[in-house]
Amino acid sequence: MRGAVIKNILSFSVKCLAGFLAFCTAVNLYMYVTTKDYIYDDVSQVPERYTAIVPGAKVIGVNTVSHVFRDRIEAGVALYDAGKVQKILVSGDHGKQYYDEVNAAKTYINKMHHISKDDVFMDHAGFSTYETMYRAKEIFEVTDAVITTQDFHLIRSVYIARSLGIDAAGYASPEIDSFTTKTHASWAVREFFARVKDFFFTLIKPDPTYLGEVIPITASGTATWD
Fold this sequence. Notes:
The protein has about 230 residues and is of the alpha/beta class. The chain has helices at about 1-35, 65-80, 100-110, 130-140, 150-165, 180-205, and strands spanning about 40, 50-55, 60, 65, 85-90, 120-125, 145-150, 165-170. Helix 5 links the parallel strand 7 and strand 8.
């Protein structure tokens, strides 16, 4: 009797897991289908938009951007230099005194490129992809944008932005230094489930951690610098 109960529990658990994975797969396919026409890997093919949104990524130490973040920033600058965008909005985590993604990005841009301070905006409360896109729309009043991030991350980023009312396209950041197959695989697994989470977020539309005063992207980026 006990063996039969255990067998039934295991069978039910397997069916639940299979159903969950099937649902996750369906969400991933839906996001892919609805965003694939807005994603580009060639700067010359990217449509013109007013703003490049650069989602944050890990920084090392006080002000050194990781290779992931560097590639995203360089992609945004490439769009700016090509005349595809007029402003760059760098978003990231600046929730702790000694961890500051956006100022690390600002330091990198100032060191490596000559871009008008008026054209570079810092979003200090972009704690997640969803919050980055939500704040881009509500705080910076971004209405159209090109999102620059790695190809694994673009599907979710573009989907969130478009779901929140931004006319968004995506440009896959070229890898200046190639990442390993293992790294790409870990990204893919994480994204598989992150897309499901943000699918529900775009339905519920919870407020981000912080909102605050509106700073139009059409104004000067220096208002966001500290």
